[in-house]
Amino acid sequence: MFALLYGLSFASVFATISHVALYDGKLITSVGNICNTNLLPLGSPWTCPGYEVFYNASIIWGVIGPRRMFTKEHIYPGMNWFFLVGILAPVPFWYLSKKFPEKKWLKHIHIPLIFSAVSSMPQAKAVHYWSWTIVGVVFNYYIFRRFKSWWARHNYILSAALDAGTAIMGVLIFFVFQNNDMSLPDWWGLEN
C-alpha cells in the first residue's frame, strides 16, 4: 500500500512540475507568437488554448460581469436555458434504467460526467477523446471483468505511469524537436 501511495504521489508531483516547467516556462518563452495563431507558421501544432479559456472566463466573470453577459437584454440570454438542460438531461436515463433494469449499460450513462468532459472541448482535440475512451474501456471494462485481481493491484499504478509517461514525452519531444528548430510531422491528428 505504501508503494502505491508513494508511486502515485511521485507521479503527480513529477507531472505537475514538468508541466509547469515546460508549458509555462520554456515553451511560452521560446516559441514566438505561441498565443497568436494568426502569426504562427501554417500547420503549427502549438497553441495556448488553456490560457485563452481562463483569460476569457476572467474577463466575463470579473471585468464585464455576468449581468451584462447573460441577462435578457444583453449578449447571451439563451445560455441560461442550459441550467434547465443540465437539470433535466439525467431524467430520461434514470427513468429508462428503472423501466428496463435488465439493461445494465443504462446505469453507466452519467450525464454530469459527459457534460464536464464536453467543457474541456476547447482545450482538447477529438483525438484526445478517442485515446481516453479506448484506454478507459480496455482497462475499466475488459480487464476489470476478466482479470479483477490484476486490475485491483495494477490499475492505479498504470494510471500514474501513463501520466508520468505523458509528461516525460512532452519534455522529450520539446527538447528533441522544437528546441532544435524542427517542426513535428504534418498528419491528420494535428488538424483542427
UniProtKB/TrEMBL annotation:
One of its GO terms (cellular component) is membrane. One of its GO terms (biological process) is protein transport. Residues 1-15 form the signal peptide. Keywords: Membrane, Peptide transport, Protein transport, Signal, Transmembrane, Transmembrane helix, Transport. The keyword Nucleus does not apply. The keyword Transmembrane applies. This is Uncharacterized protein. It comes from Brassica campestris (Field mustard).
